[in-house]
Amino acid sequence: MSRILSDVIILERSDYLSTVEARHQAGYIYLADITCVDYLNDQTRAMTNDLKLERFELVVNLRSFAPPAILRLRVQIPEQNPVAPSIFALYPGAEAMEREVYDLFGIRFENHPDLTRILLPEDWEGHPLRKDYGVGRVPVQFKEVKRNR
């Protein structure tokens, strides 16, 4: 029976890309997920060091298979400049995940090959998973999917 170890690294945006590159070289070859959390009115989350809490936290889950391990990166993203470097060059699967975070939270990814909306129509205004996004607005109308049958 194998035991999967799980670690969490909380870091500033400026350390994000170099940390991902180092972990990729160390064997974390699988990107499981990228998402975001909006802490608009909750600045009480646990921090392990003296990092400045930011409104947004980019959450990146990486996996290593030999040895089996999971790594979660919690990257602080400021409200005034919600930008992070893209990790597409290391993990091509990040393409859709980063677009989803951009579409729903408004976090922009530098050097992304196609940073356009992925779920919402191109003319949609705002980012509906932000906690300050207006309640009672027009319901979300997702893009039509063209199917080849």
TrEMBL record:
Q: Does the keyword Oxidoreductase apply?
A: yes
The residues forming the signal peptide are none
Which residue numbers delimit the NADH:ubiquinone oxidoreductase 30kDa subunit domain? 16-134
Superkingdom assignment: Bacteria
Q: What is this protein called?
A: NADH-quinone oxidoreductase subunit 5
Q: Which Pfam families match?
A: Complex1_30kDa (PF00329)
Lineage, highest ranks first: Bacteria, Bacillati, Actinomycetota, Acidimicrobiia, Acidimicrobiales
The family line of this record is: Belongs to the complex I 30 kDa subunit family.
What molecular function terms (GO) are annotated for this protein?
A: NADH dehydrogenase (ubiquinone) activity; oxidoreductase activity
Alphabetically list the UniProt keywords. Answer: Oxidoreductase
The record's section on InterPro entries has: NADH_quin_OxRdtase_su_C/D-like, NADH_UbQ_OxRdtase_30kDa_su
PANTHER family in the cross-refs: NADH DEHYDROGENASE [UBIQUINONE] IRON-SULFUR PROTEIN 3, MITOCHONDRIAL, NADH DEHYDROGENASE UBIQUINONE IRON-SULFUR PROTEIN 3
Gene name tied to this protein: nqo5
